[in-house]
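Annex B. Sample input.
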Amino acid sequence: MRRVLASFFAPLLVTGAAFAQSWFATGVIAYAPGSGAAPGHRSPQSALGEPARMTGYPGSIETVTPFQPAYRPDQVVSIGAGGHLTLELGSTATDDPGHRFGIDLIVYGNAFFTDMIAGTGTPLLCAGEGGRIEVSADGVTWMLVPERMADGPLPTMGWMDAGPYDASEGQVPTDPLRATDPAITEQSLEGMSYADVVAAYDGGAGGVGVDLASTGLASARFVRISHPAGQPGSPEIDAVAVVPPAADPADLDGSGFVDAGDIGSLLVLFGGGGPEGDLDGSGTVDAGDIGAMLLRFS
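Annex B, continued. Sample output.
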């Protein structure tokens, strides 16, 4: 029976692999660098995928922390005054009050803290360069995210167990899909020890949180970052993340999606007594659970 089911679902497994989703930006719709955009940082593809955890070059490697931002050309793209960057998200962001702190999207730039006491990782000022954030459901009608700048607090933190100026990977990565409390500001962090800064991030990677409710949109598939002409500075963007919904019991492989990998996991469990994979509560992993999974299939 399991072999028959595997044969039946083989086309779906292939299709699912071909159209895998992502919680990060996956496509560049448009990019036009403005005045002051860094000449070596004009590849918009640098803003796709996850935010960087390590930066630098051989002989000068740095851990990404709120005091050491990502800066390689393949990690951040520079916008410039009068410039803009439009990205398509790999998944639709939804306005969900149940999201942590109500945050539905997170924008990662390369802002950083200046150090109040050199070498200690004690925040003083946040060196960010602004940037307007707009969101759209269809790529045509755009809504401004109020009171948020793309390249600003909170600077990205790659690891929970790395020091502020480390040069090697930590063992405990932060979660770039976990929203950090938007009530945390550079003023509230000023003068804190680095250990207290890590605790304040609470496992998240920082970034600029966006609540879609502030825009009036129920969902968004596109994000546009721009910087008004004549404004000083040039925002740099590393990544844009979609905050995922609460875990679905059909997401058996923990990918964040109900997809081809979960069908494979269900086939392995088929015929067993659960509870894993028993999505319909019948007490057995059977055809009813396959139907329940297909209803949730991404």
